[in-house]
Design goal:
Tachylectin-2, Chain A; six-stranded mixed sheet; Jelly Rolls; mainly beta; six-stranded antiparallel sheet; 664 residues; globular
């Protein structure tokens, strides 16, 4: 279980309000702030009750609007409001929009934060709402809990004498504080906990993005790009930063403070890697500043000029380098566990740095996004020189690891290369191009060796809406020829009720009901003839086939796939990664060259139905040596249809999952 940092936020109201409104005096004027960049805080008491249509609660012309409205329960868009519905299926929401202005992006104006009211513990009665604009953050707090935030670019334009008003039917009092109040933190004595496998951060629109891992001094670290709105925060520039989890036993997990929080309006952070240098735990990451500013206004021209003239990178400090910071940088842990501090040094112009220490102890980096090649340096802060240009040839975030006699580089969504450990870098071969990769539906996976020579892979599960999803962790296995397989990590297996028999033997088309809740399914596959035959399991809704899914195995082709579920026939053949389909698309895809299916073998399945993801996650482990996962939006599994051809499915067992309701 993951123990979460559970905070209540406190706003010190000793700072006098610039203006007060009450139900008896619902409108007023106040003097505009002398420094708009200092931000503002609006605090009001909201009396929630039944409403129809849209209600404007609070308004500061050309600065702020706050409203209640009824949201379409079918429309998830980037806010994912239908993750929390009222008992009657409706989705009332509370939203606040700040109107921003900037010279660089005149079209970046309305920045909205909001929550579905069903997210609240008591979605009726009085609530204290705080809207805080700090410059770097635009945040909504309700009853002391941070429930949504955004990352602004630009500032409001205030009228000299600013009017504002409230709806006395819903807001009983309101205060505006200038400048913004910095909130204090109260750590809850009873923190929330959640299963780590398939985890997403609490809330309606919060997801796990690119994952980077490291095992250091007996602790497994998981850094992930915290995502709201599927990459559409900060006017669709992403607005990401690295959050941090860790564990020493893989049973008890701890959430830490963010490793690379966003502190400036120009910041939006790209992926990177944790690494150790001079016994210091560090996290490299990219400043994706060119998403906001043109390159000539950043530090990149100076960095590229130095590199081109000297054949190596220089050390560019934020405090002394003209231009807005961009490129590769890093943070350093003060205690070897957490408590990270930004170095404020840019060491390379690439914007997705994968820094690592190779098995000989040399500090190296694979450059991604606006650069490439393998680089080497004696220092983090500069002096990076390219030792292998052009490799790896692609990948969003490349990750190096050595396992026994082989070196591997996994890259992004589809890339995998391998070579003998004693061979030069020029010997890397394209493993994915041979259909021997271990991509299983997880995106941008990272690999780390842990105690006992075990290797783990962690990534994220894409879904409708775009970038970001659930955290997925696997254990890997290596075969003598260097090939790698994957299996479920036993320490984080979801807890289930006791398994019960669904059928002793299935050798023909058979159908079974489920109760519409998450469950585990296990069985043994017995081919009638060695390595021949096939079977499919269709995961179906209550009626029809819409949004359904089928897991199909074809033994004589050593092939497994996810395809559309059907009441009448096997799904058509899906493409593998080698054939041009990406498993990370999580639609219909195949994996090739199955391992361990030449004799009776076990299959385990987890079906997780989750209102937050708006559908069902189906996770399969085949023969304990290959995994694959699918996501189906709008599917609530109510029936299982088994279809066999030349195989028998024996000892078919079923068990509901336990403790699957995540914290809000």
């Amino acid at each position: 279980m993951l123990e979460l940092i559970t905070l209540l936020w406190v706003f010190n109201t000793a700072q006098p309000a610039q203006s007060l409104l009450t139900a008896q005096a619902p409108q007023a004027e106040f003097a505009a702030p002398a420094d708009p960049t200092a931000g503002f805080t609006v605090k009001f008491t909201l009396d929630l009750k039944t409403f129809a249509g849209e209600k404007n609660l609070l308004d500061i012309p050309n600065v702020l609007s706050v409203r209640l409205r009824q949201h379409d329960p079918r429309e998830r868009n980037f806010q994912n409001y239908p993750a929390f519905k009222m008992p009657d299926g409706s989705v009332p929401v509370l939203e606040a929009t700040v109107l921003l202005h900037s010279t660089e992006h005149a079209d970046w104006k309305n920045l909205t934060i909001g929550i579905p009211l069903a997210l609240l513990k008591k979605p009726e009665g009085q609530h204290e709402v705080v809207l805080n604009f700090s410059g770097a953050r635009w945040t909504m707090y309700v009853d002391g809990e941070l429930l949504d935030n955004e990352f602004p670019f630009g500032y409001p334009q205030w009228e000299k004498n600013t009017p504002w008003k409230l709806d006395a039917g819903f807001v009983t009092k309101a205060a505006i504080h200038l400048p913004a109040i910095t909130p204090g933190k109260l750590v809850a004595k009873q923190p929330d906990t959640a299963p780590v496998q398939y985890w997403t951060p609490p809330g309606h629109n919060s997801w796990v993005g690119d994952v980077a891992t490291l095992f250091y001094k007996g602790r497994y670290h998981v850094f992930y790009l915290y995502d709201r709105r599927h990459h559409h925060s900060k006017f669709a520039t992403g607005g990401h930063y690295f959050e941090h989890l860790s564990t020493t036993d893989f049973k008890t997990w701890t959430e830490h403070e963010a490793a690379t929080p966003l502190d400036e309006q120009w910041e939006t952070i790209g992926t990177g890697t944790p690494f150790v240098f001079k016994d210091k735990l560090c996290v490299s990451y990219g400043l994706h500043t060119t998403r906001i500013y043109p390159q000539d206004k950043t530090t990149l021209p100076a960095q590229w000029d130095y590199l081109n003239k000297n054949g190596r990178t220089g050390e560019f400090k934020r405090a002394t380098t003209p231009g807005i910071p961009a490129g590769a940088t890093y943070s350093v842990s003060a205690d070897g566990v957490s408590n990270f501090k930004k170095s404020q040094v840019m060491f390379h112009p690439c914007e997705n740095p994968s820094v690592y220490t190779d098995p000989s102890g040399k500090l190296r980096m694979m450059a991604n996004f606006h650069s490439n090649g393998i680089w080497e340096s004696d220092s983090i802060d500069g002096g990076w020189r390219c030792i292998n240009p052009g490799f790896p040839p692609g990948g969003d975030c490349t990750f190096f690891f050595r396992w026994g006699k082989f070196d591997y580089v996994i890259g992004g969504f589809t890339g995998l290369w391998s070579k003998p450990a004693t061979a030069p870098n020029s010997a890397y071969e394209d493993v994915a191009g041979k259909g021997l990769d271990f991509y299983d539906g997880t995106a941008v996976p990272a690999i780390s060796e842990i105690t006992g020579g075990r290797f783990l892979m962690a990534g994220w599960l894409p879904m409708q809406g775009g970038w970001g999803g659930n955290l997925i962790i696997r254990e890997l296995m290596q075969f003598p020829d260097g090939r790698i397989g994957s299996k479920w990590l036993k320490e984080i297996m979801p807890e289930t009720a006791p398994l019960t028999s669904l059928a002793a033997n299935i050798a023909a088309t058979s159908q079974f009901p489920t109760d519409g809740k998450s469950f585990m399914l296990t069985f043994t596959v017995q081919p009638v003839a060695a390595r021949q035959g096939k079977f499919g399991i269709a995961f179906l809704p209550e009626t029809g086939e819409q949004a359904s899914c089928e897991l199909q195995l074809v033994l004589d082709e050593l092939r497994a796939q996810f395809g559309p579920g059907s009441l009448s026939t096997f799904a058509a053949k899906a493409k593998s990664l080698r054939e041009g389909e990406g498993p990370h698309h999580l639609g219909n895809y195949a994996i090739e060259n199955l391992i361990g299916v030449d004799k009776p073998f076990a299959v385990r399945l987890i079906v997780k139905i989750d209102a937050k993801i708006g559908g069902t996650l189906i996770d399969a482990e085949i023969a304990g040596q290959r995994t694959m996962v699918a996501y189906r939006p709008d599917l609530s599994v109510r029936k299982l249809l088994f279809r066999t051809e030349g195989v028998e499915l024996r000892n078919v067992q079923f068990a509901p999952l336990k403790n699957q309701d995540p914290p809000r």
